[in-house]
């Protein structure tokens, strides 16, 4: 600044008043364009709009509404000193805004199929029952949408335990559970396991809520669903201030690198199980796997494909009401989190990015 004033005074020019403000930084991230470019060139992130970054285009793609970003800036104020904040402060603003503006829908990320064995006793010859669900259940006279209930439905695999943990409140062989919006309580009857010994199918008996004891919990579900790809984002770095690391910020990337060959086989099996790819032959799926495997640090589990701080779930299920949702439309997936439609969505595949998870309730039991 002294050199600037000297030059203006030497040339007899007006010196406008300057106000300098400190740069806002977030923990577990980098905001330098030079460092972000290194992340892109190294294949750690895909581009400038990768939702793990904190560029405006990245925040938009992840589903952060501009109103929430403005709210965040208003809350923290302006300072002349450099500021580093925890990203949870920004997440809180996003939750506050989306809680009032993102309609609720039901989605299942890790589905397990459930068959209601006494369906015909409850609904006769009907193949499905149409239910009306509020977009914002806490708001009286909220807009609504319709969902179908059928004899076969899907629940989260974590909503059933064959051997219940202490304090577990959802479905077990000895404990019924309520089904949201249906007025039904499910009681366990039987189960099937696959060749690996994992539960693949549940058989339950349903009763009207008024005809039985009120259950300890109600769970979400989907029936006649759409398949979609869910992308769950985590912090890109494992330390609060990656730029201060002695070995450089690239040394603290949040990633897992298991055996490459095993990873590829798991990735291949995961894509083979994707119902949207049934029309492809095995060779075509191999090429798809190779394309995805080029992303650094990519591997797969039964339900997930995991990259650097990113979990991809290709076989998630969601209700039909979101079928024609536009890109960047925000929803709250009940009991899961806030999600936004990703630009990768097309007529054959829907993709949702998790914007933020729901706020944890420390007093809530499992």
UniProtKB/TrEMBL annotation:
Keywords carried by this UniProt record: Aminoacyl-tRNA synthetase, ATP-binding, Ligase, Nucleotide-binding, Protein biosynthesis
Root EC class: ligase
Gene3D superfamilies assigned: HUPs (3.40.50.620), Ribosomal Protein L25, Chain P (2.40.240.10)
Domain called tRNA synthetases class I (E and Q) anti-codon binding: residue spans: 218-254, 302-342
Highest taxon of the lineage: Eukaryota
E.C. numbers: 6.1.1.18
Swiss-Prot/TrEMBL catalytic activity: tRNA(Gln) + L-glutamine + ATP = L-glutaminyl-tRNA(Gln) + AMP + diphosphate
GO MF: ATP binding; glutamine-tRNA ligase activity
All copies of domain Glutamyl/glutaminyl-tRNA synthetase class Ib anti-codon binding, residue ranges: 102-204
Pfam families per the UniProt record, alphabetical: tRNA-synt_1c (PF00749), tRNA-synt_1c_C (PF03950), tRNA-synt_1c_C2 (PF20974)
GO biological process, one term: glutaminyl-tRNA aminoacylation
InterPro entries: Gln/Glu-tRNA_Ligase, Glu/Gln-tRNA-synth_Ib_cat-dom, Glu/Gln-tRNA-synth_Ib_codon-bd, Rbsml_bL25/Gln-tRNA_synth_N, Ribosomal_bL25/Gln-tRNA_synth, Rossmann-like_a/b/a_fold, tRNA-synt_1c_C2
One cellular component (GO) term of this entry: aminoacyl-tRNA synthetase multienzyme complex
Glutamyl/glutaminyl-tRNA synthetase class Ib catalytic domain residues: 1-99
Family: Belongs to the class-I aminoacyl-tRNA synthetase family.
Name of the featured protein: glutamine--tRNA ligase
């Amino acid at each position: 600044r002294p050199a600037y004033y000297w030059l203006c005074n030497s040339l007899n020019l007006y010196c406008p008043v300057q106000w300098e403000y400190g740069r806002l930084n977030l923990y577990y991230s980098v905001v330098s364009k030079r460092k972000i470019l290194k992340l892109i060139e190294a294949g750690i992130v895909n581009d400038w709009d990768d939702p793990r970054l904190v560029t405006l285009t990245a925040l938009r793609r992840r589903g952060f509404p501009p109103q929430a970003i403005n709210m965040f800036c208003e809350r923290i104020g302006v300072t002349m000193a450099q500021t580093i904040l925890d990203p949870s402060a920004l997440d809180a603003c996003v939750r506050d805004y989306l809680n009032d503006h993102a309609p609720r829908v039901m989605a299942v990320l890790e589905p397990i199929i459930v068959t209601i064995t006494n369906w015909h006793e409850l609904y006769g010859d009907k193949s499905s029952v149409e239910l009306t669900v509020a977009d914002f259940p806490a708001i009286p006279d909220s807009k609504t949408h319709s969902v179908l209930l059928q004899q076969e439905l899907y629940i989260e695999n974590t909503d059933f335990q064959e051997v219940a943990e202490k304090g577990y409140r959802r479905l077990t062989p000895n404990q019924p559970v309520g089904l949201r919006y249906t007025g039904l309580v499910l009681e366990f009857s039987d189960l099937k396991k696959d060749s690996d010994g994992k539960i693949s199918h549940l058989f339950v008996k349903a009763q009207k809520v008024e005809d039985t004891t009120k259950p300890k919990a109600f769970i979400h579900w989907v029936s006649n669903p759409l398949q979609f790809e869910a992308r769950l984002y985590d912090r890109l770095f494992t330390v609060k201030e990656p730029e201060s690391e002695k070995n450089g910020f690239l040394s603290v990337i949040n990633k897992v690198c298991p055996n490459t060959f095993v990873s590829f086989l798991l990735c291949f099996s995961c894509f083979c199980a994707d119902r949207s790819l049934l029309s492809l032959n095995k060779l075509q799926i191999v090429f798809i796997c190779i394309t995805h495997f080029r992303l650094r640090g990519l591997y797969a589990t039964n339900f997930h494909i995991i990259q650097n701080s990113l979990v991809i779930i290709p076989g998630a299920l969601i209700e039909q009401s979101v079928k024609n949702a536009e890109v960047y439309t925000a929803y709250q997936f009940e009991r899961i989190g806030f999600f936004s439609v990703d630009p990768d969505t097309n007529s054959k595949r829907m993709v949702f990015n998790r914007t933020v998870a729901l706020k944890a309730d420390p007093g809530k039991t499992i």
